[in-house]
Amino acid sequence: MELKYHTGFGSYFESESENGVLPEGRNSPQQPPKGLYPEQLSGSAFTMKRSENLRSWLYRGQPSVVQSPFKPYGQKYWKSILPETGQTAPTPIRWLPFTRWTTGNFVDGVRTMVANNTNEGSAVHLYGFDQSMKNTFFYNADGELMFVPVEGELLVKTELGRLTVAPLEIAVIPRGVKFTVEPLKPHIKCHGYLGENLGAPLRLPDLGPIGANGLANPRDFQYPVAFSEMKNEACSLICKYQDRLWVAELDHSPLDVVAWHGNYAPYKYDLTRFNTIGTISFDHPDPSIFTVLTSPSAIPGRANMDFVIFPPRWLVGENTFRPPYYHRNVMNECMGLIQGVYDAKKEGFLPGGMSLHNCMVPHGPDAETFQNELKRSEKPVKVDQTMAFMFESSLHYSVSSFALEEASLDHDYWKCWQGLKRLHL
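User: That's the sequence. What structure does it adopt?
Assistant: Structure tokens below.
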């Protein structure tokens, strides 16, 4: 499906699916033409400074207040705030790809893997589904969602327009935006990762000494154009609020926005457009150079959540051990693999799988990778046909009961380093 998009990260857009709907000039944004209802959607406090103020005006067939009261919705696997029970040991953890998906829709197919134990942190889930949501819609009042597909192209229909999202692309749905998601082709199996950011909205990282260009460039982010769905029939609206799911009934589609203008909207990004920065002399920089998007915390330099990728790239450093170095750090790293092989783990870390290395937990290349790297010549090497990523947080990730008991936990992960021999004689 070929769709048109606006481009430019964080830009202010105007979009209408019907000519003459957006107010112009001195006309009040609260008096739109053609009998539509105006509704402002705010993603930040009203008093945030201009550069951080997020809001969009929506012009729709019915305002969002036209719905029944919410009632509890039974979905026991989606929990973004996990109590600290002491069951997450300071040990590297890895999961093989989860394959026991049941048929169903997106909301019912979410499974929480790891999460912080705070309502301003983040969580990482898996999703798996093969059916559309039909007349069911969803919004997250707790935070924004990032889709990272591994298999199956998605059609995401939102209040502000439509996105198609394929493997090697990501899509971010801001807090409060209503949407429905389905396989782009009917009954195709879709599975992947779902990041949930409960903190400050994701933004592009500052580039500092890198300068004006590099990493993810603003012009490569794509935003939907207005596309209204004027359906007057019974619908359900599921909301995630205070880490519980609720459902209300409507007599119309909530995707009835005919036009909108603002800077608060869903977007997608093609990971293959990331401009990778690296060394051309010796050693290699820290993995922070691979940051696509960041959610800053109250402490400058410490992220609530970073989204980091490890894309295809050249390795050219002289006198350098080129795979990731062995390290311990204060951040908490949850990694996944979209396609190919991760250069630090040749075996066991598979597309759709995950690993977790919490604060000060040592990790790095497995024994086989280390031994092979010592034999490699210093000629430039292309790391190709790969796309790994990491959700990294300054907050500790607790592991869900599902991830410990029902998911494909790799109980032998720790063994991948035990073949490392003492080299000093």
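The first strand starts at residue 5 and ends at 7.
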